[in-house]
Amino acid sequence: MASPLTIDGRTVDYQETGDGPAILFVPGSYSTPAAWLGVQRELSSGYRFVSTSLCGYGATNETRNLGDLDIEHEVRVVAAVAEQVGAPVHLVGHSFGATVALAAALANEFEVLSITTFEANPIALVRERGQMDLYESVTQMNSAFEAAYNAGERDAAGRIIDFWGHDGAFAAMPEVVQDYCRSTTFANVLDWRTAFGFEASMSDYAQLTMPVLLARGGLANPAMVEITAALEAALPNVRPEVIDGAGHFLISSHAKDCSQILSDFLAVV
After folding, report:
1. Which of 24, 155, 20, 178 is nearest to 98 (CA)?
2. Helix 222-234 vs helix 132-150: angle between axes, to the nearest 10 degrees?
3. Is residue 206 included in any domain, yes or no?
């Protein structure tokens, strides 16, 4: 079932299939529920799969602007979908969507049974851990990306894709995917500003007592490795996983591996 929700006059992406315990999938930047299809195909049929899109992607309206970028905009999307589900959920997120999933759990507006993050990127943790060289590499990359977008660079999105993935990752994507990234680049400009404004600390994450599966690729960007290490140190009930040979876009490139670790995790929580 794919039928967008109307919440307070805005549209929120909502897709649902299956029956059983609810898994709420949150895609990242430049993504829609389609990002999770490979993982979902490999999972047991005994779950209710629900997915949405973040602000400015898919059928979800953009509610942020340059003067109002609080992550609460994204949390409201996830909370609205959880309310529609009407049951406790297992939250699963990728990249910025995983950061939003963590923010939603911290907001404590609905019952979260577990959290699974694939390369979550709450960048403030790099600074908190004192890794200023890594933090500066991210801020400089983002400044160059935003400047390129403002200058009209057609493939500015490729700067982000290649940073988290690898050189040439954007060029290797199908043209239809590249076009979608181009068309939603401004939403990603806002995503980065939202992410830099999200200041949850390690002590905040320590309050999340539900089981957490914390996954990253074996080829992860150094900043991602540091973020994941910080979350692993902070979260009290965490199961870390590294998928060998995978990079940032592991839910697509290594969907079967991602599905396997998710399935194993859900079987015991």
Report:
1. 24
2. 120
3. yes
pLDDT for position 1: 66
Model pTM score: 0.97
Three-state secondary structure of 95-124: CHHHHHHHHHHHHCCCCEEEEEEECCCCCH
Give domain status of residue 190, yes or no. Answer: no
Q: How many domains does the chain have?
A: 1
Contact status, residue 1 vs residue 17, Cβ threshold 8 Å? yes
Asked whether residue 194 carries a pLDDT value surpassing 90, the answer given is: yes
**Residue 94 covered by a domain:** yes
Stated as kind and residue range, the H or E segment containing 164 is helix 157-164
Round to whole Å and give the CA distance between 198 and 99.
9
CATH of the domain at 256: 3.40.50.1820
pLDDT for the residue 118 = 98
Residue 147 covered by a domain: no
Q: Which domain holds residue 63?
A: 5-122+200-266
C-alpha 62/C-alpha 199 separation (Å) is: 22
Q: pLDDT (tens digit, 9 = 90+) per residue, 231-243?
A: 999 999 999 999 9
